[in-house]
Automatic annotation (TrEMBL):
PANTHER family, per the entry: 5-FORMYLTETRAHYDROFOLATE CYCLO-LIGASE, ATPASE INHIBITOR/5-FORMYLTETRAHYDROFOLATE CYCLO-LIGASE
Protein name: 5-formyltetrahydrofolate cyclo-ligase
EC assignment: 6.3.3.2
Any one Gene Ontology BP term: tetrahydrofolate interconversion
GO molecular function, one term: ATP binding
Matching Gene3D superfamilies: NagB/RpiA/CoA transferase-like
NCBIfam families: MTHFS_bact
Key words of the record: ATP-binding, Ligase, Magnesium, Metal-binding, Nucleotide-binding
InterPro entries the record matches: FTHF_cligase (IPR002698), FTHF_cligase-like_sf (IPR024185), NagB/RpiA_transferase-like (IPR037171)
Length: 199
């Protein structure tokens, strides 16, 4: 990775996460509800048979209710599990009450006994992030997990990020491995970046 963007990624990440942390518990919960409604109203959510979500940790957008909605409407729910070397395993979850355990960094992750799915089967990936810009760029926590995972999807599988308005900045520092989002959903609106291939 280019050294200049590495240093600025650390700084920018810190500042975006501070903005997010400044939201109160109630505010985060209210905004998460609005984000959830917008996500579940998206045509790509409605038509997807297989949805890869994330379960929130720290002060991310709350996603548990959407995960429950995916299971309740008989879609296949896929959740990520961190594996060594920055690999993200997409595992099938049928029952949120029994299929999860606290994994890396305390994130609620599927147990390894859950079935691993072929990323080519996934119709929609919902993506967390520390910061976003309105060109479709996303900054994560610096593990490179999602950037290594995206090239394994079909190139036009929608990649929808969830974030709060306060996490949007003018320009996220980008490297050549960074994959753009197709949409960003915030409490205020859905930003559409068009059909962008993942490689
Ligand atoms: N809810 C959720 N699940 C997710 C992600 C996410 O962003 N949100 N990930 C998205 O990729 C992956 C986890 N990625 C992570 C990467 C780094 C750190 C982290 O805490 N890093 C340290 C610094 C480096 C270190 O000590 O290893 C830190 O921030 O203190 C946490 C999660 C997979 N699952
Ligand atoms: N496709 C890839 N192939 C190999 N290495 C990669 C790839 N994507 C990212 N990396 C490496 O992973 C590390 C973290 O990358 P980066 O800071 O862009 O992660 P991030 O987007 O913040 O995190 P994440 O994708 O987990 O949310 C860097 O060392 C980077 O070189």
């Amino acid at each position: 990775m280019n050294e200049e963007s590495y240093c600025s990624k650390i700084e920018v990440r810190k500042s975006c996460l501070q903005q997010r942390a400044a939201l109160g518990e109630q505010e985060r919960s209210n905004k998460s509800f609005l984000i959830r409604k917008k996500l579940e109203d998206l045509p790509e959510f409605k038509t997807a048979q297989t949805v890869m979500l994330f379960l929130n940790f720290r002060d991310e957008v709350e996603t548990t209710a959407s995960a429950e909605a995916v299971v309740a409407c008989k879609k296949k729910l896929i959740l990520p599990r961190c594996a060594p070397k920055g690999i993200l395993l997409p595992l099938k979850v049928s029952n949120l009450a029994v299929d999860l355990e606290p994994g890396a960094w305390g994130i609620r992750e599927p147990k390894l006994t859950n079935e691993e799915v072929n990323p080519l089967e996934i119709d929609l990936v919902v993506v967390p992030g520390a910061g976003f810009d309105l060109q479709g760029n996303r900054l994560g926590y610096g593990g490179g997990f999602y950037d290594r995972f995206f090239p394994r999807l079909k190139s036009l599988t929608p990649r929808v990020a969830l974030g709060f308005e306060c996490q949007i900045i003018d320009q996220v520092p980008v490297d050549k491995h960074d994959v753009k989002m197709t949409k960003l959903v915030t409490e205020k609106m859905v930003y559409d970046f068009g059909k962008i291939a993942n490689q």
